[in-house]
Amino acid sequence: NAGVTQTPKFQVLKTGQSMTLQCAQDMNHEYMSWYRQDPGMGLRLIHYSVGAGITDQGEVPNGYNVSRSTTEDFPLRLLSAAPSQTSVYFCASSPRGGANTEAFFGQGTRLTVV
Amino acid sequence: GEDVEQSLFLSVREGDSSVINCTYTDSSSTYLYWYKQEPGAGLQLLTYIFSNMDMKQDQRLTVLLNKKDKHLSLRIADTQTGDSAIYFCAGGASGGGADGLTFGKGTHLIIQP
Hints:
The complex is a heterodimer. Chain A is built from no helices and 11 strands. Chain A is mainly beta. In chain A, strand 5 (42-51) and strand 6 form a beta hairpin. The relative contact order of chain A is 0.32. By secondary structure, chain B is mostly beta strands. In chain B, strands 2, 4, 5, 9, 10 and 11 form a 6-stranded mixed sheet that branches. The chains are: A mainly beta, B mainly beta. The interface between A and B is medium-sized, with 34 and 27 residues.
């Protein structure tokens, strides 16, 4: 079982460049989300999706776009990278809410914007 | 929105019990989670508790929930070097939580030999 797969694992961007962080899950989970992790800040929610075609903003959505055209994929787009977006990005997925459900996290993408 | 607070560091001797504390503000958090993150890795769910429970035990882990004080704790019995990691408390309105969890900043558990 692949679980939640994030690519790339590492990326360096120049200020102003755009890129897409990929996230794919093979567990047929309805819920998916993106977090960023910064030192001393814990994880903060960027965007999330409760199903294909449905997305919503989290705590820190500015500078990021998402789409959910399929159940499996939830890409995160940086339109014009800024040094403040240097962070570790985690994608997560889970089944629809209920007892004994669990959010599964990818291994993370370490992004540096110079 | 939800606010989740944790102390940043906890240092314990190997073999002792570790108690990591967390407070939260949103009483609508139905599910409360403890995640473990080892260096350079993603997050691993350790355990969770429903808001209508007071305690949950799972092998060396004991979770205590005080709803009145909005206080959650994770006790790790017989702490081992492999327990060295960052522990995150998180709250969510629905099970699973990938529709949006609120995380604390994480507690670094440091094990002394």
